[in-house]
Amino acid sequence: MFCAHRLKLGVCRTPIGGGLMSDAVSQYTAAHIQVLEGREAIRKRPGMYVGSTSEPGLHNQVFEVSDWAVNEVLAGRAEHVDVALESDGCVRVAIDGPGIPVEAAGHAGDPSLEELLTRMPAGPRGDGRNFVGVGLFGLGPFVTNALSSHLTGEVRREGVRWVQRYDRGAAVGPPAPQGPATKTGTVIAFRPDADIFGTAQCSFDALAERFRTLAFLNRGLAISLTDRRPPSGPRSERFLFPGGVRDFVAVIAARTGTPDGAGVFGFEYEDPGITGSVEVAMMWSDTSAGGIHGFANSMPTRCGGSHVAGFREGVAAAINAFARERRLLTKADTDLGPDRLCDGLTAVVSVKLDRPEFEGATRDFLGNAEVRESVAPAVRDHLIAWLAEDPRLASAVVSRIAAGTSSAGA
Protein backbone atom coordinates (compact mmCIF):
# COMPACT_ATOMS: atom_id res chain seq x y z
CA MET A 1 0.00 0.00 0.00
CA PHE A 2 2.76 2.40 0.89
CA CYS A 3 4.63 1.78 -2.36
CA ALA A 4 1.44 2.05 -4.38
CA HIS A 5 0.69 5.40 -2.78
CA ARG A 6 4.21 6.67 -3.55
CA LEU A 7 3.78 5.36 -7.13
CA LYS A 8 0.77 7.64 -7.65
CA LEU A 9 2.93 10.58 -6.69
CA GLY A 10 5.54 9.60 -9.22
CA VAL A 11 8.18 8.77 -6.58
CA CYS A 12 8.45 5.00 -6.53
CA ARG A 13 9.11 4.04 -10.14
CA THR A 14 10.68 0.60 -9.75
CA PRO A 15 9.80 -2.57 -7.86
CA ILE A 16 11.28 -2.98 -4.41
CA GLY A 17 14.37 -5.14 -4.42
CA GLY A 18 15.61 -4.34 -7.89
CA GLY A 19 16.00 -1.79 -10.65
CA LEU A 20 17.62 1.61 -10.52
CA MET A 21 17.85 1.83 -6.74
CA SER A 22 19.56 -1.52 -6.43
CA ASP A 23 22.04 -0.58 -9.15
CA ALA A 24 22.85 2.71 -7.37
CA VAL A 25 23.37 0.93 -4.07
CA SER A 26 25.60 -1.67 -5.59
CA GLN A 27 27.77 1.03 -7.16
CA TYR A 28 28.13 2.99 -3.90
CA THR A 29 31.46 2.00 -2.32
CA ALA A 30 33.97 3.40 0.15
CA ALA A 31 35.56 5.28 -2.75
CA HIS A 32 32.53 7.59 -2.76
CA ILE A 33 33.10 8.69 0.83
CA GLN A 34 35.16 11.82 1.22
CA VAL A 35 36.77 12.21 4.64
CA LEU A 36 37.87 15.73 5.52
CA GLU A 37 39.90 16.39 8.62
CA GLY A 38 41.53 19.37 10.25
CA ARG A 39 42.13 22.44 8.12
CA GLU A 40 40.66 20.77 5.01
CA ALA A 41 37.30 20.42 6.75
CA ILE A 42 37.42 24.03 7.93
CA ARG A 43 38.28 25.41 4.50
CA LYS A 44 35.61 23.26 2.84
CA ARG A 45 32.84 24.42 5.19
CA PRO A 46 34.07 27.67 6.80
CA GLY A 47 30.58 28.74 7.84
CA MET A 48 30.38 25.77 10.19
CA TYR A 49 33.38 27.10 12.13
CA VAL A 50 33.09 30.90 12.05
CA GLY A 51 29.40 31.30 11.25
CA SER A 52 29.65 32.82 7.77
CA THR A 53 32.03 33.96 5.05
CA SER A 54 30.88 37.57 5.31
CA GLU A 55 31.86 40.27 7.81
CA PRO A 56 30.53 38.47 10.95
CA GLY A 57 32.54 35.37 10.06
CA LEU A 58 35.62 37.48 9.49
CA HIS A 59 35.19 38.98 12.96
CA ASN A 60 34.87 35.50 14.45
CA GLN A 61 38.16 34.60 12.80
CA VAL A 62 39.75 37.49 14.71
CA PHE A 63 38.04 36.49 17.97
CA GLU A 64 39.44 32.96 17.77
CA VAL A 65 42.90 34.50 18.29
CA SER A 66 42.03 37.49 20.48
CA ASP A 67 40.04 35.34 22.94
CA TRP A 68 43.00 33.00 23.25
CA ALA A 69 45.18 36.05 23.98
CA VAL A 70 42.70 37.30 26.61
CA ASN A 71 42.85 33.93 28.35
CA GLU A 72 46.63 34.19 28.49
CA VAL A 73 46.18 37.46 30.40
CA LEU A 74 43.49 36.06 32.70
CA ALA A 75 45.75 33.10 33.47
CA GLY A 76 48.52 35.47 34.54
CA ARG A 77 50.82 34.61 31.64
CA ALA A 78 50.56 38.11 30.11
CA GLU A 79 49.43 41.59 31.11
CA HIS A 80 47.72 43.07 28.09
CA VAL A 81 46.41 42.31 24.58
CA ASP A 82 47.12 44.47 21.53
CA VAL A 83 45.10 44.00 18.34
CA ALA A 84 45.96 45.92 15.17
CA LEU A 85 44.27 46.12 11.77
CA GLU A 86 47.18 46.76 9.42
CA SER A 87 47.03 48.82 6.23
CA ASP A 88 47.99 45.79 4.12
CA GLY A 89 44.91 43.83 5.26
CA CYS A 90 46.64 41.76 7.94
CA VAL A 91 45.40 41.43 11.51
CA ARG A 92 48.00 41.39 14.28
CA VAL A 93 47.32 40.07 17.78
CA ALA A 94 50.11 40.48 20.33
CA ILE A 95 50.57 39.71 24.01
CA ASP A 96 53.50 40.28 26.31
CA GLY A 97 54.59 37.69 28.86
CA PRO A 98 57.33 35.08 28.51
CA GLY A 99 56.22 33.88 25.07
CA ILE A 100 54.54 30.53 24.47
CA PRO A 101 56.72 27.40 24.15
CA VAL A 102 58.47 26.53 20.89
CA GLU A 103 59.04 22.85 20.21
CA ALA A 104 62.14 23.54 18.13
CA ALA A 105 63.69 25.17 21.19
CA GLY A 106 63.04 22.09 23.32
CA HIS A 107 60.30 23.69 25.40
CA ALA A 108 57.78 21.38 27.05
CA GLY A 109 54.67 21.78 29.15
CA ASP A 110 51.98 24.08 27.78
CA PRO A 111 50.88 23.71 24.13
CA SER A 112 53.56 24.96 21.79
CA LEU A 113 53.26 27.44 18.92
CA GLU A 114 52.80 24.74 16.30
CA GLU A 115 50.26 22.83 18.39
CA LEU A 116 48.26 26.02 18.88
CA LEU A 117 48.13 26.72 15.15
CA THR A 118 47.71 23.25 13.64
CA ARG A 119 45.76 21.07 16.06
CA MET A 120 42.06 21.13 16.80
CA PRO A 121 41.69 21.10 20.59
CA ALA A 122 39.87 18.15 22.15
CA GLY A 123 37.73 20.65 24.06
CA PRO A 124 37.64 24.32 24.94
CA ARG A 125 40.85 25.15 26.77
CA GLY A 126 40.32 26.95 30.06
CA ASP A 127 36.67 25.96 30.51
CA GLY A 128 36.67 27.21 34.12
CA ARG A 129 35.36 30.45 35.53
CA ASN A 130 38.60 32.40 35.00
CA PHE A 131 38.59 32.01 31.24
CA VAL A 132 36.47 33.41 28.44
CA GLY A 133 34.99 31.15 25.80
CA VAL A 134 37.30 31.01 22.80
CA GLY A 135 35.71 32.07 19.55
CA LEU A 136 32.36 30.85 18.26
CA PHE A 137 32.84 27.14 18.96
CA GLY A 138 35.95 27.11 21.12
CA LEU A 139 38.49 25.98 18.52
CA GLY A 140 40.91 28.89 18.84
CA PRO A 141 43.78 30.01 16.57
CA PHE A 142 43.73 26.70 14.69
CA VAL A 143 40.58 27.90 12.88
CA THR A 144 42.11 31.30 12.14
CA ASN A 145 45.18 29.67 10.61
CA ALA A 146 43.09 27.38 8.39
CA LEU A 147 41.10 30.34 7.02
CA SER A 148 44.10 32.59 6.40
CA SER A 149 46.03 32.87 3.14
CA HIS A 150 49.14 33.64 5.19
CA LEU A 151 49.88 33.52 8.91
CA THR A 152 53.02 34.19 10.89
CA GLY A 153 53.59 33.09 14.46
CA GLU A 154 56.35 34.95 16.28
CA VAL A 155 57.67 34.13 19.75
CA ARG A 156 60.24 36.19 21.61
CA ARG A 157 61.52 34.06 24.45
CA GLU A 158 64.75 33.60 26.38
CA GLY A 159 66.59 36.13 24.22
CA VAL A 160 65.68 34.49 20.89
CA ARG A 161 63.11 35.52 18.28
CA TRP A 162 61.39 32.48 16.75
CA VAL A 163 59.24 32.70 13.60
CA GLN A 164 57.06 30.16 11.82
CA ARG A 165 55.11 30.84 8.62
CA TYR A 166 51.97 29.17 7.26
CA ASP A 167 50.15 29.18 3.92
CA ARG A 168 46.43 28.37 4.12
CA GLY A 169 46.95 26.54 7.40
CA ALA A 170 49.95 24.45 6.34
CA ALA A 171 53.35 25.12 7.84
CA VAL A 172 55.93 26.32 5.32
CA GLY A 173 58.63 25.01 7.63
CA PRO A 174 59.40 24.46 11.33
CA PRO A 175 59.84 27.37 13.76
CA ALA A 176 63.20 28.95 13.04
CA PRO A 177 65.36 31.33 15.09
CA GLN A 178 65.52 34.79 13.51
CA GLY A 179 68.07 36.50 15.68
CA PRO A 180 68.14 37.90 19.21
CA ALA A 181 65.14 39.38 21.04
CA THR A 182 65.31 42.09 23.68
CA LYS A 183 61.67 41.68 24.77
CA THR A 184 59.38 38.71 25.32
CA GLY A 185 55.91 37.88 24.04
CA THR A 186 53.87 36.24 21.30
CA VAL A 187 52.51 37.72 18.07
CA ILE A 188 50.10 36.06 15.63
CA ALA A 189 49.69 38.01 12.38
CA PHE A 190 47.37 36.71 9.67
CA ARG A 191 45.74 37.73 6.41
CA PRO A 192 42.16 36.44 5.99
CA ASP A 193 41.89 34.37 2.83
CA ALA A 194 40.15 36.41 0.11
CA ASP A 195 39.13 33.16 -1.60
CA ILE A 196 36.94 32.50 1.44
CA PHE A 197 35.90 35.93 2.73
CA GLY A 198 35.91 37.80 -0.57
CA THR A 199 36.07 41.56 -0.09
CA ALA A 200 34.75 41.55 3.50
CA GLN A 201 36.52 43.99 5.79
CA CYS A 202 36.85 44.01 9.57
CA SER A 203 34.77 46.68 11.27
CA PHE A 204 36.67 48.64 13.90
CA ASP A 205 33.42 49.35 15.76
CA ALA A 206 32.33 45.70 15.83
CA LEU A 207 35.69 44.54 17.16
CA ALA A 208 35.78 47.40 19.66
CA GLU A 209 32.35 46.44 20.99
CA ARG A 210 33.53 42.89 21.69
CA PHE A 211 36.77 43.98 23.36
CA ARG A 212 34.97 46.65 25.38
CA THR A 213 32.53 44.03 26.68
CA LEU A 214 35.34 41.68 27.69
CA ALA A 215 37.06 44.49 29.56
CA PHE A 216 33.82 45.33 31.39
CA LEU A 217 33.27 41.71 32.40
CA ASN A 218 36.87 41.10 33.52
CA ARG A 219 37.92 43.91 35.81
CA GLY A 220 41.56 44.85 35.24
CA LEU A 221 41.79 43.32 31.75
CA ALA A 222 43.51 45.73 29.33
CA ILE A 223 42.90 45.44 25.57
CA SER A 224 43.94 47.92 22.88
CA LEU A 225 42.66 48.09 19.31
CA THR A 226 44.41 50.07 16.57
CA ASP A 227 43.25 50.60 13.00
CA ARG A 228 46.04 51.63 10.64
CA ARG A 229 43.90 51.43 7.49
CA PRO A 230 42.37 54.96 7.35
CA PRO A 231 44.22 57.33 5.00
CA SER A 232 43.70 60.11 7.56
CA GLY A 233 45.83 58.27 10.11
CA PRO A 234 45.57 55.51 12.73
CA ARG A 235 42.60 55.19 15.06
CA SER A 236 43.17 53.62 18.44
CA GLU A 237 41.19 52.81 21.58
CA ARG A 238 42.15 51.17 24.88
CA PHE A 239 39.69 49.26 27.04
CA LEU A 240 40.18 49.01 30.81
CA PHE A 241 37.33 49.38 33.32
CA PRO A 242 38.13 49.18 37.05
CA GLY A 243 34.41 49.41 37.88
CA GLY A 244 33.53 46.17 36.11
CA VAL A 245 29.86 45.64 35.30
CA ARG A 246 28.87 48.82 37.14
CA ASP A 247 30.75 50.75 34.46
CA PHE A 248 29.05 48.53 31.87
CA VAL A 249 25.54 49.43 33.07
CA ALA A 250 26.36 53.14 33.25
CA VAL A 251 27.54 53.11 29.62
CA ILE A 252 24.47 51.19 28.39
CA ALA A 253 22.11 53.48 30.31
CA ALA A 254 23.80 56.57 28.92
CA ARG A 255 23.24 55.27 25.39
CA THR A 256 19.57 54.47 25.84
CA GLY A 257 18.12 56.98 28.29
CA THR A 258 18.60 59.50 31.08
CA PRO A 259 19.27 57.95 34.51
CA ASP A 260 16.81 58.90 37.22
CA GLY A 261 19.54 59.89 39.68
CA ALA A 262 19.55 56.62 41.58
CA GLY A 263 22.93 55.72 40.17
CA VAL A 264 24.08 52.19 39.59
CA PHE A 265 23.45 49.51 42.21
CA GLY A 266 25.54 46.38 42.11
CA PHE A 267 27.10 43.53 44.04
CA GLU A 268 29.15 40.40 43.54
CA TYR A 269 29.70 37.21 45.48
CA GLU A 270 31.22 33.75 45.37
CA ASP A 271 28.93 30.75 45.82
CA PRO A 272 30.43 27.28 46.44
CA GLY A 273 27.02 25.83 45.63
CA ILE A 274 27.40 26.77 41.98
CA THR A 275 31.22 26.52 41.98
CA GLY A 276 31.39 30.01 40.60
CA SER A 277 30.84 33.71 41.11
CA VAL A 278 28.05 36.17 40.31
CA GLU A 279 28.32 39.88 39.50
CA VAL A 280 25.20 42.03 39.08
CA ALA A 281 24.65 45.72 38.33
CA MET A 282 21.44 47.59 37.52
CA MET A 283 19.95 51.04 37.01
CA TRP A 284 16.41 52.32 36.41
CA SER A 285 15.83 55.04 33.85
CA ASP A 286 13.01 57.55 33.33
CA THR A 287 13.01 56.92 29.59
CA SER A 288 13.90 53.87 27.56
CA ALA A 289 15.54 50.84 29.13
CA GLY A 290 18.79 49.24 28.12
CA GLY A 291 17.43 45.77 28.86
CA ILE A 292 18.85 42.84 30.81
CA HIS A 293 22.16 41.54 29.48
CA GLY A 294 23.24 38.08 30.58
CA PHE A 295 26.74 36.65 30.35
CA ALA A 296 28.23 33.30 31.31
CA ASN A 297 32.01 32.99 31.43
CA SER A 298 32.16 36.30 29.53
CA MET A 299 30.06 34.97 26.65
CA PRO A 300 26.77 36.72 25.84
CA THR A 301 23.75 34.51 26.52
CA ARG A 302 21.40 36.21 24.09
CA CYS A 303 18.64 33.68 24.71
CA GLY A 304 18.89 34.09 28.48
CA GLY A 305 19.10 31.19 30.87
CA SER A 306 19.03 30.36 34.56
CA HIS A 307 21.06 33.42 35.64
CA VAL A 308 18.69 35.86 33.91
CA ALA A 309 15.60 34.02 35.19
CA GLY A 310 16.98 34.17 38.74
CA PHE A 311 17.68 37.88 38.38
CA ARG A 312 14.14 38.63 37.26
CA GLU A 313 12.69 36.61 40.13
CA GLY A 314 14.90 38.39 42.65
CA VAL A 315 13.96 41.85 41.36
CA ALA A 316 10.26 41.00 41.52
CA ALA A 317 10.51 39.65 45.07
CA ALA A 318 12.45 42.71 46.32
CA ILE A 319 10.27 45.38 44.71
CA ASN A 320 7.02 43.74 45.77
CA ALA A 321 8.24 43.31 49.35
CA PHE A 322 9.32 46.98 49.52
CA ALA A 323 6.10 48.21 47.90
CA ARG A 324 3.96 46.36 50.41
CA GLU A 325 6.06 47.48 53.36
CA ARG A 326 5.66 51.14 52.24
CA ARG A 327 1.99 50.53 51.43
CA LEU A 328 2.49 51.42 47.82
CA LEU A 329 0.58 48.19 47.18
CA THR A 330 -2.48 47.28 49.20
CA LYS A 331 -3.52 43.82 50.30
CA ALA A 332 -6.01 43.78 47.48
CA ASP A 333 -3.35 44.53 44.87
CA THR A 334 -1.67 41.67 43.10
CA ASP A 335 2.10 41.46 42.99
CA LEU A 336 3.85 43.38 40.26
CA GLY A 337 5.13 41.00 37.58
CA PRO A 338 8.76 40.78 36.46
CA ASP A 339 7.94 42.19 33.02
CA ARG A 340 6.57 45.44 34.45
CA LEU A 341 9.27 45.66 37.12
CA CYS A 342 11.99 45.40 34.51
CA ASP A 343 10.47 48.19 32.44
CA GLY A 344 12.95 51.07 32.47
CA LEU A 345 15.68 48.82 33.85
CA THR A 346 19.21 48.41 32.54
CA ALA A 347 21.06 45.47 34.05
CA VAL A 348 24.03 43.17 33.55
CA VAL A 349 24.09 39.70 35.10
CA SER A 350 27.47 38.00 34.75
CA VAL A 351 28.19 34.54 36.11
CA LYS A 352 31.50 32.70 35.95
CA LEU A 353 31.28 28.99 36.49
CA ASP A 354 33.74 26.12 36.67
CA ARG A 355 31.22 23.85 34.96
CA PRO A 356 28.89 25.87 32.74
CA GLU A 357 26.12 23.93 31.01
CA PHE A 358 25.14 25.63 27.77
CA GLU A 359 22.21 24.72 25.57
CA GLY A 360 22.72 25.11 21.84
CA ALA A 361 25.83 24.93 19.67
CA THR A 362 26.50 28.66 19.95
CA ARG A 363 26.31 28.59 23.76
CA ASP A 364 23.75 31.39 24.03
CA PHE A 365 21.54 29.89 26.77
CA LEU A 366 22.77 28.88 30.24
CA GLY A 367 21.10 25.78 31.62
CA ASN A 368 22.59 25.32 35.13
CA ALA A 369 19.45 25.08 37.32
CA GLU A 370 21.42 25.74 40.51
CA VAL A 371 22.42 29.17 39.23
CA ARG A 372 18.80 30.33 39.26
CA GLU A 373 18.44 29.16 42.84
CA SER A 374 21.56 31.12 43.80
CA VAL A 375 20.92 34.36 41.91
CA ALA A 376 17.25 34.90 42.83
CA PRO A 377 17.65 35.17 46.64
CA ALA A 378 20.92 37.09 46.33
CA VAL A 379 19.31 39.73 44.11
CA ARG A 380 16.28 39.92 46.41
CA ASP A 381 18.33 40.41 49.58
CA HIS A 382 20.84 42.88 48.14
CA LEU A 383 18.16 44.92 46.38
CA ILE A 384 16.00 45.12 49.52
CA ALA A 385 19.03 46.35 51.48
CA TRP A 386 19.77 48.96 48.83
CA LEU A 387 16.19 50.21 48.78
CA ALA A 388 16.24 50.52 52.58
CA GLU A 389 19.34 52.75 52.47
CA ASP A 390 17.41 55.57 50.75
CA PRO A 391 13.66 55.09 51.30
CA ARG A 392 12.75 58.38 49.60
CA LEU A 393 14.56 57.57 46.41
CA ALA A 394 13.40 53.95 46.52
CA SER A 395 9.79 55.05 46.93
CA ALA A 396 10.11 57.25 43.87
CA VAL A 397 11.40 54.33 41.80
CA VAL A 398 8.77 51.90 43.04
CA SER A 399 5.96 54.48 42.75
CA ARG A 400 6.86 55.10 39.13
CA ILE A 401 6.77 51.36 38.43
CA ALA A 402 3.45 51.02 40.23
CA ALA A 403 2.02 54.02 38.37
CA GLY A 404 3.12 52.52 35.08
CA THR A 405 1.37 49.30 35.99
CA SER A 406 -1.82 51.16 36.89
CA SER A 407 -1.85 53.16 33.66
CA ALA A 408 -1.15 50.02 31.66
CA GLY A 409 -4.03 48.30 33.38
CA ALA A 410 -6.34 51.23 32.67
Plain-language structure description:
With 410 residues, this protein is an alpha+beta fold. It contains 14 helices and 14 strands. The protein has helices at residues 2-8, 20-27, 38-44, 47-50, 55-74, 113-118, 141-146, 194-197, 204-217, 245-256, 306-325, 338-341, 369-389, 391-409; strands at residues 80-85, 91-95, 148-157, 160-167, 170-171, 176-180, 185-192, 222-227, 235-239, 265-271, 276-284, 291-296, 299-300, 345-353. The strands form 2 sheets. Strands 1, 2, 3, 4, 5, 6, 7, 8 and 9 form a 9-stranded mixed sheet that branches. The chain has a 5-stranded mixed sheet with strand order 10-11-14-12-13, sandwiched between helices. Helix 11 (306-325) packs parallel to helix 13 and helix 13 crosses helix 14. The radius of gyration is 27 Å and the shape is elongated.
What is the fold's blueprint, element by element?
Layout: H1 2-8, H2 20-27, H3 38-44, H4 47-50, H5 55-74, E1 80-85, E2 91-95, H6 113-118, H7 141-146, E3 148-157, E4 160-167, E5 170-171, E6 176-180, E7 185-192, H8 194-197, H9 204-217, E8 222-227, E9 235-239, H10 245-256, E10 265-271, E11 276-284, E12 291-296, E13 299-300, H11 306-325, H12 338-341, E14 345-353, H13 369-389, H14 391-409
Parallel strand pairs: 1-8, 12-14
Antiparallel strand pairs: 1-2, 2-7, 3-4, 3-7, 4-5, 4-6, 8-9, 10-11, 11-14, 12-13
Helix pairs in contact: 11-13, 13-14
